[in-house]
Amino acid sequence: SETYSYVKRDEKYKKLTEQDIEHFRAILGKKGSLITDEVPSDLDFYNEDWMRKYKGQSKLVLKPTTTEQVSQIIKYCSEQNLAVCPQGGNTGLVGGSIPVFDEIILSVANLNKIRSFDDVSGILKCDAGVILENADNYIKDNGNYIFPLDLGAKGSCHVGGVVATNAGGLRLLRYGSLHGSVLGLEVVLPNGEILDSMHSLRKDNTGYDLKQLFIGSEGTIGIITGVSILCPPRPNAFHVSFLGVESYEMVQKVFQKAKNELGEILSAFEFMDKKSLQLTKSHISSPEPLEDEYPFYVLIETSGSNAEHDSAKLETFLSSAFEEELVLDGTVSSNESEAKNLWSWREMIPESSAAGGGVYKYDVSLPLKDLYSLVDAVNEKLEAAGLSSITDESKPVISAIGYGHVGDGNLHLNVAVRTYTKDVENCLEPFVYEFVSGKKGSVSAEHGLGFQKKNYIGYSKSDQEIKMIKQLKNIYDPKGILNPYKYV
Ligand code: FAD
Ligand code: MLT
Ligand code: ZN
Fold first, then answer.
1. Where would I find the FAD-binding PCMH-type domain in this sequence (predicted)?
2. Mean pLDDT throughout 214-225?
């Protein structure tokens, strides 16, 4: 297809044979652990990404149930030069989780057991294919802990998948990056060897911290089969506030004030522009957070150990924000279902922005003061090119919207389109990447590079850094069988 016109299948990879399939069948044994093209539609879910933007042509999905099986599969693939695409929940947003050509899909979905949970230390050990929400529920029910990462895809994405992408999510502001909370990993290396590094130590300065290499490696250097992670106690009280704000300038002021005045109970600070909310409004039917429309909205979550104390603190913060005219309107949740509803207005933006046909996604880090200027610049560029209109259905672009994790300096620029076209893509790229690089930002804050951004790593990493990434890849995966055609 058009998307793949600039990459070609590398003929060094063997094409799958009946004997290979028989070999895998013997390893897996169980029925249902291996999906072939006998019924071609059975492969569809695994070959297509969440955005329905990328489509692979794999003829085989393997779903092992043990690390040992993963090891045997990968050892065979390495010997036979069979390329493999590791897959978790397939919610990734850069086309990294699906094959480009006929790579075998190795789904870890059936590696889905909780291995242990220590309710004194808060250390969870689980298989990589445990769904994030299931892990969170398990530790909630077994000691009142919380998974140190939350995101809109929690019902589908895997613990191993979020580690493989080093996902950031909605509470990074509070709990930090997975580079801090992951204590150990079990990984099947590209030659089939098992790296057992499932440690449970907070402090361990005995040589290179090898697990870090796999956090954010996007399936290019090993298959994560187990995760050991430190989970914080679950706060007893959550409050969510949704505010209408006049300008992006004011969003920053509210953020500064929230950090100072809500301090240790601030657990999320998210923002969205008016168009994000409008697109969401046309897609979901939940009660609207505020009566009127505002140029920007802020969602603040507090969580702490004492509901009364937290709510008094939030009330004081909000009344002074109104008095200082930083905020134009606002609401605070008074129970769990209201809190969930307010969160849904933020968490449903990704789905809503794709609902009109498709979406070009740019997930960037920028200095806070420049964060929103990219959205303005892109809207101007699209309009000048005559490509964009909210009402005129003959135009490919509906609108460019901006939302994201202000607290982490992470903007999501989403260009909602009626259809994907080369004109739109050429208008956006490399413009967006040049803009970000010009401001010393990152072209991927949290989604990774995958296939979509494979050619743009140079906007955020130096030649020396890229050289070392390639050297590491060559040491551990000299045959290049893991996730080829992606960013490394
Ligand atoms: P997949 O999509 O299956 O895979 C992602 C990448 O990791 C691929 O390159 C794949 O090859 C590799 N991979 C997966 N599992 C393994 C494994 N076990 N071993 C080795 N490699 C593996 N991201 C954020 O950072 N923050 C957000 O707030 C956020 N919100 C989202 C909201 C929605 C609605 C959606 C659809 C996505 C969101 N994401 C967000 C994207 C995010 O990258 C994924 O949701 C998540 O990190 C991917 O997990 P997954 O299990 O679906 O992995
Ligand atoms: C989010 O913050 O909602 C996610 O990263 C997903 C997205 O950007 O669409
Ligand atoms: Zn995000």
1. 54-234
2. 98
